[in-house]
Amino acid sequence: MAPFISSPLSLLTFLLLLLLLFLSSAASHHLKLPLLHLNPYPPTPSDALSADNHRLSFLFSASRKHPRPRLPVTSAASFGSGQYLVSLHLGTPPQPLLLIADTGSDLTWVSCSACRRHCSPNSAPFRPRRSATFCPHHCYNPACNLVPHPKNSPHCNRTRLHSTCRYQYSYADGSVTTGFFSTETTSFNATAGKILKFQHFNFGCGFWNSGPSLSGPSFNGGDGVLGLGRGPISFTSQLGRDFGHKFSYCLMDYTLSPPPTSYLLIGAGKSKLSYAPLLVNPLAPTFYYIKIESVSIDDVKLRITPSIWAIDEYGNGGTVVDSGTTLTFLPEPAYRTILAVFERLVKLPESANPVPGFDLCLNVSSGVPRASLPQLSFKLGGGAVFKPPPRNYFLDAAEDVKCLGLQPVTTDSGFAVIGNLMQQGYTFEFDKDRSRLGFTRRGCSAPP
Ligand SMILES: *[C@@H]1O[C@H](CO)[C@@H](O)[C@H](O)[C@H]1NC(C)=O
Ligand SMILES: *[C@@H]1O[C@H](CO)[C@@H](O)[C@H](O)[C@H]1NC(C)=O
Ligand SMILES: *[C@@H]1O[C@H](CO)[C@@H](O)[C@H](O)[C@H]1NC(C)=O
């Protein structure tokens, strides 16, 4: 990695990490995740989406070689956020938006403004009144059953003629978005230089958005959230049926300046991947779970009781792959073991000024010699090994200081999370039909 001091991003990244600390020390240990156990979905949700012609229509004339939507992805580090942003166009004519890529939630929503003609620069980024194709769902529409509704307010008032479908979607840290569940036309640049349009894309037009991860600095640069989860209303579930229920992305190194662009690709991507089976947790149908079989450092398997990685009968535990969480969270006993081994093996002095929130910080003022940072690897269910480079978990936390970017999960109901920084430099392919996660380092390296 290029020396960090010389990079103009260093201060921003420093702020970013302070921000991460602030967020990770908040009541919830995740930056943002949807509330579990709400079970907002009826038993056969995809039927409701296809009922009364709300199934997406694929406007591009079908050809044998389908072009596939290819959406630009960049790190939001230059906005001081630890998120990755996807560029999406919504409405007719198309309005450009930047949405947080989140495999840990299902609802796609955008911050909406009611302005028509006189929109101030500070008004919310999406203006439904300037779109000819915006259409809020009626509350009697079966699609309205797919979203949670505001508490204390009956979502359908039978005495009103025009009652729009109100949604209220909450994240684990208490952040909430409320608005109208609606449909719109969304357009993409696709492979082979084509433009694709999808009609009747279901999304939330969010008029009331609050909470630390929706209004604080972690939301900087974002106009909403792109829900990439496993549930029926997610962006990828809605679009995916025309593309084999597959999508892939590559998250580039967030410290690079200017931030490089990679892509979220809907449909089949690369071949020659390593695969791990995706597990299903009926109590949390949004998440992509993988099984961690064992953890090694410098190819030595650590003594960690395998049962701490399991999903229990109440749906707690397990390991989730989440693009919307920045750091990686591991069960406390595994975290303690990994930390102790790193402390023993690392060949760099510890920093004299530890960074609050991190247990292991190193003084890298004399550089980082090759092989001075131990190499972490995860053996996954199915036998594939995920061996991310040390820069994915030794993060620049202050000038000349790198800290181990892992956090312990301390609550019984918690679960492990492979966060977005740990995923950098890999292409991940989520294949819902074959229930497997593919990954490879090929095709996701930083530009030279
Ligand atoms: C339903 O709407 C009517 C007319 O707007 C209003 O008077 C009534 O209070 C509403 N009922 C509920 C339960 O909100
Ligand atoms: C397609 O790409 C062009 C050139 O990069 C860009 O100007 C345009 O906004 C993109 N359109 C969509 C719908 O993404
Ligand atoms: C790092 O090491 C250098 C040289 O030994 C020292 O001057 C500096 O104060 C140290 N910085 C921290 C944060 O430990």
From TrEMBL:
GO molecular function: aspartic-type endopeptidase activity
Tagged with keyword Repeat: no
Positions of the Peptidase A1 domain: 84-440
Superkingdom of the organism of origin: Eukaryota
One GO process term, biological-process aspect: proteolysis
Record's keyword annotation contains Secreted: no
SUPFAM superfamilies, alphabetized: Acid proteases
Active site positions, chain numbering: 102, 322
This protein's UniProt keywords: Aspartyl protease, Glycoprotein, Hydrolase, Protease, Signal
PROSITE patterns reported for this sequence: ASP_PROTEASE, PEPTIDASE_A1
Signal peptide feature range: 1-26
Family: Belongs to the peptidase A1 family.
Classification via PANTHER family: ASPARTIC PROTEINASE NEPENTHESIN-1, OS07G0603500 PROTEIN-RELATED
Annotated protein name in UniProt: Peptidase A1 domain-containing protein
Organism annotation: Salvia splendens (Scarlet sage)
Phylogenetic placement of the source organism: Eukaryota, Viridiplantae, Streptophyta, Embryophyta, Tracheophyta
